[in-house]
C-alpha cells in the first residue's frame, strides 16, 4: 500500500478535502485504484451528533456510518463507496483502546498515548486502507489520508506521531506527505507572503515530518520567485511546489494539478511511475468547461432550517449541480429560511417575510430538504402547500416528505392538527410517527440509517420511470419518524400515492401526487448517491420538470440523452 498524507497549515477552511480528493482523481486518472481515509481529531465518536450549523452536513454512507462531509467529496470525486471505518476520530480510537483496556488486553501495563493510542491509529489506518471501495477485489494501490484540522492543534498530535511512525515503517517510497498551505497577499498590489507557510512547515518538521510537496492556496497564480523562496525555506524542491489558485469551479482543481505535472512527481516519489498511464481527464475537462459556459439557469428555492451555512446541505447542493449540468443549466439556488415564510414573521420581521415569499414565488421549483426539530416546520408546510396548489415542481427529502404528508392531511383531508409526533406528541391525527428499527429507548440506536431497499410499487409513475423501471432502488436513510402505516388508506383518499415502500410494506418510502407536473417526497436521501457523471434520478427529474423538459424525457428515458 502506498500512502499519500494530506495535512493543512496556517488556517482552516483551505479546501484540504477538495485538494486531497483532487489528488486522488488525478492518480485514478493514471489508472491506479485509490481509496481514502479522513481523520477528524475531534472527540466525538462520529459526526452523527454534530450540528449542521456548526459543522456542515452529516454525510451518510451505505453502511449507515454518519461521517464528516469530506467523505462525501471523496465518494463523489473518486466514485467509490466508503465505509464508516474510513472516517477515524479521536473518539473512535480512544473507545477502542479503552474497550481493550477493560478486557485486560494490555496485561497490566500502563496504557498511554504513545504507544497504545498511536498503535491503535496505525493499525486502524493499515487495516482500513486495504478495504476495497471501488467494487473490485483486492486492495487499492494508493490510500489518500486527510488529516483534519491544522498542524499544531493539540488534538492532532497523536495522529501526527502515529503517521510519523507509519512513514518510518513503510519507508520513503511508500509514503508521500503533501502539506496544504495559504499564501496570502497583503494590500491591493502586495507581495505573496510565504512566512505563514514557513512557520507551519517548521511546526511539522519539529514533529518529525518533512513535507515532500506543498500545495499552496492563493488568489492569483504563484510567482516563480515565491516558489523559489518557499523551496529554500521549507526544504521542498521547486518542482514539488504545487499551486492551487482560485478557479471558477472545483472541477478545475484536478486539471490544475495535472497541468503542473503533480501526478508525475507524486508517482515518481511513490515508485509508481512505471505502472501508471498518462492521466485521462477528458470527462473532468468537459464538465469543468460546460459549467463555465452555461448560459441558461434554473431558479431553485431551498426552504430549510439551516440556510445560514450552505455546507449544511452540501450533498443536496452537489446533487442539484449534477442534475443541472446534465440539463445544461446553471443552478441558481435561493435560500429561504422557512421561518421567514410563517405568518408570525409578517408581524415581527415584515421585510424578511415579504422577501421570502417573493423569492418563493419567483422560483421554478421548490425543495424542502431533511432536518430535525420543529423550527421552521410551519414555513415548510406553507411552501409545500404553495408548490402543490400552484403546480410548481416539488421535491421533499426526508423531513420534506413528512412535511407534504402533514400539509395534505391538514389542508386537503382537513384532519385537525394533523402532525408528526416529533413536533406534537398529543396530536389527534399522528400522520407521521416514531418508527425506529432498533431500540426505542436507547438514543444512539433509534435512527434508521444507511442503505435500505425501496420496492417500486407501480410502474406507471414518474419515479419508477426516472429509475428506469427498476424493481427496487437502494438509497440511504437517516431518520427516526415515518408516515403512520395505519393512516395510509386515509392519506391516499386525498389523491396522494405511496409509490415506493420498504420490503415489509409498512414503511412509506416515496410519495407522488399524480395530478401535478412533479410532486415527489422521499423518506430517503437521494443526494448522497449522486455523482458528477451519474446524477440522482430524482434530482434529474426535478430539474427537468422545473425547466419543462420532463414529459419529453420520460417518453424516452432509456436514451439518456437530453
Ligand atoms: N426529523 C425527521 C425524522 O427523524 C426527519 C429526518 C431527516 O430529515 N433526516 O424522521
Automatic annotation (TrEMBL):
Residues 2-272 form the CTP synthase N-terminal domain. Pfam families: CTP_synth_N (PF06418), GATase (PF00117). Coiled coil: none annotated. One of its GO terms (biological process) is 'de novo' CTP biosynthetic process. InterPro entries: Class_I_gatase-like, CTP_synthase, CTP_synthase_N, GATASE, GATase1_CTP_Synthase, P-loop_NTPase. Belongs to the CTP synthase family. This is CTP synthase. It comes from Penstemon smallii.
